[in-house]
Design goal:
By secondary structure, the chain is mainly α. The chain folds into two domains: about 40 residues, no CATH class; about 30 residues, no CATH class. It contains three helices and two strands; from the N terminus they run ββααα. The longest helix is centred in the middle third of the chain and has 17 residues. The radius of gyration is 25 Å and the shape is elongated. The chain starts with 8 loop residues before the first strand and ends with a helix.
Length: about 80
């Protein structure tokens, strides 16, 4: 869809400055879908896989916190993983 085909209407203030845009509902919905698709495509976590030891440690930490534990500092986790 070309910009000139969007059927955009502008709302202006008393000084003639554009303050808002009115779009046909169909165009607005299409823009929302496009934005949503772009967000999903650019998600930095997409395809992220954690190494097994880190995944296990994170799951252990989560359970500990869920059971009222305070958790462990990030430095302590790094130290455990490097040993």
């Amino acid at each position: 869809m070309k910009v000139k085909d969007l059927q955009v209407q502008y709302i202006t203030n008393a000084d003639g400055e554009k303050t808002a845009v009115v779009l046909p509902l169909e165009v607005f919905q299409e823009l929302l879908e496009t934005i949503s698709d772009l967000d999903e495509e650019n998600d930095p976590d997409t395809g992220l896989s954690l190494q097994a030891p880190l995944q296990a440690r994170l799951e252990q930490q989560k359970k500990s916190v869920e059971n009222g534990g305070r958790g462990v500092s990030l430095d302590a986790v790094r130290q455990d993983l490097n040993s």
